[in-house]
Design goal:
Layout lengths: L5 E5 L6 H11 L10 E4 L16 E4 L2 E2 L20 H9 L1
Parallel strand pairs: 1-2
Antiparallel strand pairs: 1-3, 3-4
């Protein structure tokens, strides 16, 4: 069983961040290899630079955006496609 790295990139005030957490909660613990996730707040200066290129919310599995998008954003912004569903996250974990 492969253990995946799961990360949520968001910023405070993004209306879809909580929806992304809900999707993650629905998946973690019910999908093999998904035990927990880390969160990176784009508003926090301690967030590593490599996460700053993503829009909010972005869910990464093993460093890849679960939607297949490159998730790049020129500035801190909410993603136009909203939060990924539990099904999209689950599919990314099964790849």
């Amino acid at each position: 069983m492969k253990k995946h790295t799961i990360e949520l990139v968001y910023f405070d005030g993004c209306p879809n961040a909580e929806r992304a957490r809900e999707s993650l909660q629905a998946v973690v613990g019910t999908t093999e290899g998904a035990a927990a996730w880390s969160e990176w707040n784009l508003s926090d200066e301690a967030t590593p630079e490599r996460f700053r290129r993503f829009g909010s919310p972005t869910v990464l599995v093993d460093g890849e955006d679960v939607t297949g998008s490159d998730g790049r954003s020129a500035a801190m912004a909410c993603r136009a496609d909203g939060a990924p569903s539990a099904a999209v996250i689950r599919a990314a974990l099964s790849r």
